[in-house]
Amino acid sequence: MRRPARYSALGLLTRGLTGRKWPRLWSQHDLRRSYDVVIVGAGVHGLACAYYLAKVHGITNVAVLDKGWLGGGGSGRNTAILRSNYLTPEGIRFYDRSLHLYRRMSAELNLNVMFSQRGHLTLAHSDAALRTMRWRAEVNVLQGVDSRVVDAAEVKTLVPSLDVSPHSAHPILGALYHPPGGIIRHDAVVWGYARAAAALGVQLHQETEVSDILVEGGDGPSGKGPGGRVTGVRTSRGDISARVVVNCAAGWASTVAQLAGLTLPITTIPLQAAVTEPVKVFLPAVVVSGSLHVYVSQTDRGELVFGAAVDPVAAYSTRGSLEFVEGLASNILQLMPGIARMRLLRQWAGLCDMTPDYSPIMGGTPVDGFFVDVGWGTYGFKAGPVSGEQMAACIATGRTPELIRAFDLARFTEDRLVGEKGAAAVGH
User: Fold this and answer.
1) What residues are paired with 350 via a beta bridge?
2) Structural domains in the chain?
3) Is the Cβ–Cβ distance between 217 and 354 less than 8 Å?
4) Coil, helix or strand for 133?
């Protein structure tokens, strides 16, 4: 097994002064005509799945395909907030495992992913919201996750820039405080998994669009759909045969599934975000207000990163809107009036695949050999490591791991939804 290269401080300085070229993080390859596993989507989920297939299960004849570039979809457009204080026991256990993998990621991948564990506050502006926070805290504690309800005075101590005055339009009564939460450098996570997977023999193919999933023996038109078996994929660079195809195409998950003759209960909706000019670091925690539909964190470079609820209309647009900025500014200034003179530098949008119960869809499907890791809504980046780990185990062993069993596709027809809307709708 090839390990990604390590560089001493002297080596780094020497390269900087002499202008010596840095080695590529991963190699370019000709597309083979056959792979054991083809993964559609080169974001954190697809790359993590490839990495764990190779590292843990020894499956290295793997191709990760993306119509754009690595991390160019949701993995490069999210606000990189991490937490595990969800609402359901299934969700809490799942995301806590992911947070554990994130904590040790820099050492495992030999790359500083800049994980900053600074704490996460979900504000309560009403008695009803405060009751919900107490409920979530109790469920978290029962699952061994560090979460507790704090009053307005402690909120002010934790984040002095917040307005906790009782005379504000939306007074802060308290918050759910989750110390393990934090932020991370999302592009470093993508590069780390890509480099580590490539070092183990996985092939990464950018600018390779999948136009069809080849299926035979299905119940639908052209032999596709339930009851069929995957035989490969058709791409912009030619056909590939494969016994396993994994759909990790966040934002385009439902359209990729349709190529295999499978319909998923997913609605795709844009989610917008924005970032300010950099200033001296003053925001020590991630702050979320579900009532005001905003959340904010500050990067190590000093920018404030804002987000809100998903757009009101389903679409595939990744353009920002003036309506978003106006609503965001109005709501965030109620919480932090002191930032009124800061300037927004840019805004953008990503695509969120929303399921009816705000939980993902993971595992096998009625099409043999076709696996899905989709339906991530606004919370997919938090789950990247654990999704890769568990999906790799599912593919390699042919058995669904306990940690993701509740998130199978069949739950929508068997009336066993995993309702996470109370902790996932705006709960960044």
Assistant:
1) 271
2) 32-111+186-266+357-424 (3.50.50.60), 120-180+274-354 (3.30.9.10)
3) no
4) helix
